[in-house]
Each structure stands twice: as C-alpha cells, then as structure tokens.
Amino acid sequence: MSADDATKKEGRFSGDGWPIKELWEKYEEIAMHFNDLLIRLRTQALAGVAALSTLVGLFAKTSASVNTSWEIAALFFAFVSCLWLAVWVIDFCYYNRLLLGAVAALEALEERSKTEMRVRHIDLSTMIEMAVARQLTGEPRSKWLIFGRWAFYVIVFLVLLAGLAITFNGYLHTASAASNQNGCDLPG
C-alpha cells in the first residue's frame, strides 16, 4: 500500500486536500451534535418549568394562610419567567448560533462538492465563530424555522406571565379581603 493510500484510508490531508465526503460527514456530526444540544436544552427547560410548577402547587397548598399561598405562587411565576428568559438568551444568542454556523459550513461544503472532490482548507470553526458574532450572512431560508423557535419560547413565557398576573391578582384580592375583615385599609 502506498503512502497516498494510507493517507486516504486514515482521512488525513494529502497534497490535494481532504476528501469532501469525509469532511462532510464530520461537519454533519458536529451540526447534529449542536442540534441535539438545542433539543435537550429546550425539552429540559420545559420539563423544569413543569416540575417547578408542580412543586409550587404543593408548597402553596400546604401554606398556613391563603395570602401566603398567593405570595409563593406569584414569586414562583416571577422567578421562573426570569429563568425562561435566561434559557431563551442562551438558546438564541449562543446555542442556536452554533448550529447555524455549522449548517452554513455544511451547506458551503455541499456547494463546493458540485465542482470539487477534495478541499484544501477547513472552515467549520470560522463559520461557527462568524455565526456567533452575527457576522454570517444568510439566515435560515424557511421563515417557519424562525417562527417555530420564537413560538416555543413566547407561548411558555405568555403562560408564565398569565400565571404571574393571576397569582398577583389573587394576592391583592385576599389581602384586600383580609384588611376589610380587620377593618383596616391597604396602603396605596
């Protein structure tokens, strides 16, 4: 076996460059890794919201007073809304950018495969870095991809805000009712 055959077999660079198919497979693995990270981030964040909702329901029911139950629930919804925003920032400003950069590099490599069999340079990390820095042109072609990401976060955030509004309103009503029973007025 010649030195060139050994180089090809091990996937190393030869004088002509790397085989596009092998490089494409590596790029695809990396893109799928980022996609998996995003799916796990989103599903685990949603599961976390559901688990915390269950816990606050249990704690609110065991509270000594109705007023305290509303306070606990309102604080929970405010806290989880902030956490949800933090997850959104991590997703949109970092993890999703990693995926977009990897996909852009993959698409560029696929375009090159129409005219070339080998490539002399690798630009995956450069494209990912450009995507994270928002210097990469060409956002996803499908508006549904963009809509789907936004819809996921907006729907849950609106539910959390509705929960916050309902619990805060419940707190105000129970506090008002308690003060009316005691004959004192609430400040403000």
Topology (SSEs and partners):
Layout: H1 3-10, E1 18-19, H2 20-61, H3 66-112, E2 118-119, H4 124-132, H5 143-182
Antiparallel strand pairs: 1-2
Helix pairs in contact: 2-3, 3-4, 3-5
Explained architecture:
The protein is mainly alpha-helical. It has one domain (17-170): Substrate Binding Domain Of Dnak, Chain:A, Domain 2 (Up-down Bundle), CATH 1.20.1270. 78% of the residues lie in helices and 2% in strands. Strands 1-2 form a two-stranded antiparallel sheet. Helix 2 (20-61) runs antiparallel to helix 3, helix 3 (66-112) runs antiparallel to helix 4 and helix 3 runs antiparallel to helix 5 (143-182). The chain is rod-shaped and about 90 Å long.
Q: Brief description of this entry?
A:
This protein is an all-alpha fold and 188 residues long.
How big a fraction of the residues is strand? Answer: under 5%
Distance between the termini: 88 Å
Query: CATH top level?
Result: Mainly Alpha
- Report the average pLDDT across residues: 83
Structural features:
single chain, 188 residues, mainly alpha, Substrate Binding Domain Of Dnak, Chain:A, Domain 2, two-stranded antiparallel sheet
